[in-house]
From TrEMBL:
The gene is pfaB. SMART domains: PKS_AT (SM00827). InterPro entries: Ac_transferase_dom_sf (IPR001227), Acyl_transferase_dom (IPR014043), Acyl_Trfase/lysoPLipase (IPR016035), Omega3_polyunsat_FA_synth-like (IPR014181), PKS-FAS_Synthase (IPR052568). This is Eicosapentaenoate synthase subunit PfaB. Residues 391-715 form the Malonyl-CoA:ACP transacylase (MAT) domain. The lineage of its organism: Bacteria, Pseudomonadati, Pseudomonadota, Gammaproteobacteria, Alteromonadales. GO terms for molecular function: transferase activity. It comes from Shewanella pneumatophori.
Length: 780
């Protein structure tokens, strides 16, 4: 097949694979180097292990001469591929492997992207430009417009298929290669990189610089990249491949974590001393930098620590306690160790003084994420019921750019979610990742509900699929009950509710928007003025508010939550009630009649809306707790689950006052102790902490309780996840630390490979052969 660029040419269909280093060779005789490649990129195993090994031609891109231009070298590469070669195209810093897509498929190699078209053109009269592209002709040179038109034709694509279209002027050859390499990285990692200036608006300092590259359901991502030099332009069309970049390691030289198990204060102290001695050997510069040798040693220390801790927790005799140290540098880690060591005596003294009827939570916690508890709540040691509860937040917790970076650490999870349903719609990506950060706050009630369920669903799968965490209990705040049923394997097809939520009158007009349910309850006809509805958070007990409600019939006590309540209804009457109460309220400025008496007008509609078919196999180990009936002595069990029961519980919760305080107490009575908030931000954790604090101040006997947020607005997403997992580890929650170990394995391997190649380049023996036992082979 002719591969040279012609307007009438067939699509190129060249598989593109990013290589870990420019020194990559398919026929390397160094087995440790081959093992490194296989560990870093398992997709290369088939190629490296093939017999006979395909012949590889190496082509170097440089700026030395026009004959070495990127375009000419890429042409040479396509011709070589036609002649049976695989080609490595490289600069001093980056390398790309190219081979026919058919050959890659036959070898079961999953490419990171495919080159579908490559076209060059010079300036062309406007009359010859296709109508589809004329609209953008003022912003692009005619040469580039013409080249792109031919490239799209060659790739059998339309301009509307292209979700990223980049244009660069007067770049040198190596710069052009770097930009193409970067675009392949974005395709392979499914990352959309935002420009610093978008349509004249500069990206704010607090806005995310990138987020997941969403696509339409079952549609591949297509990108174009254009280079203009004078009157000549070259356009390339790239499509996503079936391969994904390996997950970024959650732990590295800037994100440290160590687990220190022990059965006593003395054992934990000994572990602290041992780790401190290991870190003291690392030579850190004044600017907190490590040499390559020290980086390798640090990664080895972390790797060994986690592997050993994992072995201990899988034994029958598990350690009684596990301290978790987290830090951003070696010096910070030593400070965390010293601070923990200083706190141990007081912690164990507190444990000794605790009474059998009033066992509070004994924990040590730092802002960096270090954590130790002497009252682990997530295991079933000592024949006590494990108390891990997943808590699902309600509407309104989502925020702009939430979860924007998690896909780079869990690419397989995102790929799975994308296969299962419309991930873009599930997270309401066009609103959440809008370039205007204020846009998310203006979302409709239905869209907020969808995004809330979507974020909870994603984080649930992250914990259950990636870390093998299984909750003992589940409960939801308000519409968090719907998130609970959607996320924990109860409904057959929770994605079916997305479009319904956006169009059903229940969300668009009955309890939001025009508030038709409220108008009906208040007996207002169509000529009556628009209802001015609002809700207010007020610091008050429920009883004083309830005593005043009879005087304000259009104001309602919607939610009871710890030391605050939410009143909702006619804005004028709510303000008057607050004045009579002698309290100030914080206006939510959101129109929703959930949890008020008028919502009862929609009770049957809510039931019908959530009447969804259940899966054939339902989760048997989870006790589901509903706010609908807090008088029940038992939780909703698997035997009681049915479509009718689930819909009824949601409708009852939806249409009556939500007593979140009572719900938490009910969950505690059933055995829940460790509450993990599964959703955007940490509002439920804050509320539960306040409830627990109130309980502690009362004379009522109380048992230990702890909250763990999976996400926190304003914090780095992956840092929040690591901190949460650190707490769960210390609470002895059964989980897999393998994702941490796998990531460190790749980090360690890359560091080793770099050191080996530097040593070979300098023609000296490697100083790091003693660490070769860490160079684990096989897939990660």
């Amino acid at each position: 097949m002719e591969q040279t660029p012609k307007a009438s040419a067939m699509p190129l269909r060249i598989a593109l694979i990013l290589l870990p280093t420019p020194q990559f060779e398919v026929n390397s005789v160094d087995q440790s180097v081959l093992a490194s490649y296989q560990t870093l990129q398992p997709e290369l195993n088939a190629l490296l292990n093939s017999a006979p090994t395909p012949e590889m031609l190496s082509i170097t891109i440089s700026d030395d001469s026009d004959a070495n231009s990127f375009e000419s070298q890429l042409n040479a590469a396509t011709n070589a591929i036609n002649n049976g070669y695989i080609v490595k195209l490289a600069t001093a810093t980056h390398a790309l492997l190219m081979l026919p897509a058919l050959k890659a498929a036959q070898m079961r190699i999953h490419p990171h992207a495919q080159l579908a078209a490559m076209q060059q053109a010079k300036s062309t009269p406007m009359s010859q430009v296709s109508g589809e592209l004329k609209l953008g002709a003022n912003a692009l040179s005619l040469a580039q417009t013409n080249a792109l038109s031919h490239a799209l034709s060659q790739a059998k694509r339309n301009l509307t298929d292209v979700s990223v279209n980049e244009c660069f002027e007067n770049l040198k050859s190596e710069q052009q290669f770097t930009e193409v390499y970067s675009l392949i990285q974005q395709l392979a990692s499914r990352t959309h990189v935002r420009k610093e200036v978008n349509q004249g608006v500069e990206l704010g300092p607090k806005q995310a610089k990138s987020h997941y590259w969403f696509s339409e359901f079952h549609q591949n991502r297509v990108a174009a990249i254009n280079f203009i030099n004078g009157q000549q332009a070259t356009s390339y069309v790239l499509t996503q491949g079936s391969g994904l970049l390996a997950a970024k390691s959650m732990l590295n030289q800037q994100r440290l974590m160590f687990i220190l198990p022990g059965n006593s204060q003395q054992q934990i102290t000994a572990s602290i001393t041992q780790l401190m001695q290991q870190l003291e050997r690392l030579q850190v510069t004044e600017v907190n930098e490590l040499s390559l040798e020290c980086q390798l040693e640090l990664l080895s220390i972390m790797y060994d620590n986690l592997v050993n801790a994992d072995k201990l927790t899988t034994r029958d005799s598990k350690p009684a306690y596990q301290a978790v140290i987290q830090a951003s540098s070696v010096s910070a880690a030593k400070q965390e160790l010293s601070a923990l060591n200083d706190a141990l005596t007081a912690l164990f003294a507190e444990q000794t003084n605790a009474t059998s009827t009033n066992k509070g939570l004994i924990q040590y916690k730092t802002p960096a994420g270090s954590y130790l508890t002497l009252t682990p709540l997530g295991s079933n040691n000592d024949n006590a019921q494990a108390g891990l509860a997943f808590v699902y937040p309600g509407v309104g917790t989502v925020y702009a750019d939430m979860l924007n970076e998690l896909h780079q650490y869990f690419p397989a999870l995102y790929a799975k979610l994308e296969r299962e349903g419309d991930l873009k719609a599930m997270l309401q990506a066009e609103d959440i990742y809008h370039l205007d950060p204020k846009h998310a706050a203006q979302m409709s009630l239905g869209d907020l509900a969808i995004a809330g369920v979507g974020s909870s669903y994603l984080l649930t799968q992250l914990l259950t699929d990636e870390f093998n965490i299984k909750p003992n209990f589940a409960l939801g705040y308000s519409m968090g009950e719907a998130s609970m049923w959607a996320s924990l394997g109860v409904w057959q097809n929770p994605h079916a509710l997305i479009s319904k939520t956006q169009t059903d009158p229940l969300f668009t007009s009955a309890i939001s928007g025009k508030l038709t349910a409220v108008r009906q309850a208040w007996q207002l006809d169509d000529t009556a003025a628009e209802i001015q509805w609002n809700s207010f958070v007020v610091r008050s007990e429920a009883a004083p508010i309830e005593a005043l409600l009879k005087d304000y019939p259009h104001a309602y006590l919607a939610i009871i939550q710890g030391d605050t309540c939410v009143i909702a209804g006619c804005e004028i009457q709510c303000k008057a009630l607050l004045a009579a109460l002698g309290k100030r309220g914080i206006a939510a400025n959101r129109v929703t009649a959930m949890h008020t008496q008028p919502a009862m007008q929609e009770h049957q509609n809510v039931m019908d809306f959530y009447l969804q078919p259940l899966k054939a196999e339902l989760p048997s180990e989870i006790s589901f707790i509903s706010a609908a009936d807090l008088t029940a002595k038992q939780t909703v069990s698997e035997q009681a689950l049915s479509s009718q029961v689930v819909a009824q519980s949601i409708a009852d919760t939806f249409c009556q006052t939500l007593d979140f305080t009572a719900l938490v107490h009910h969950a505690q009575h059933q055995g829940a102790k460790l509450f993990v908030e599964i959703g955007a931000d940490r509002q439920n954790c804050t509320l539960i902490d306040k409830i627990v604090k109130q309980d502690g101040a009362s004379s009522v006997q109380h048992q230990p309780c702890c909250t763990v947020p999976m996400n926190a607005k304003g914090s780095q997403d992956i840092t929040s996840v690591i901190k949460a997992l650190g707490q769960l580890i210390s609470h002895q929650v059964p989980l897999s630390v393998q994702p941490f170990i796998d990531g460190l394995k790749r980090e360690l391997t890359l560091c080793q490979l770099t050191s080996q190649q530097l040593a070979a380049h300098a023609n000296v023996d490697s100083k790091f052969e003693s660490n070769q036992d860490h160079l684990l082979q096989g897939e990660v």
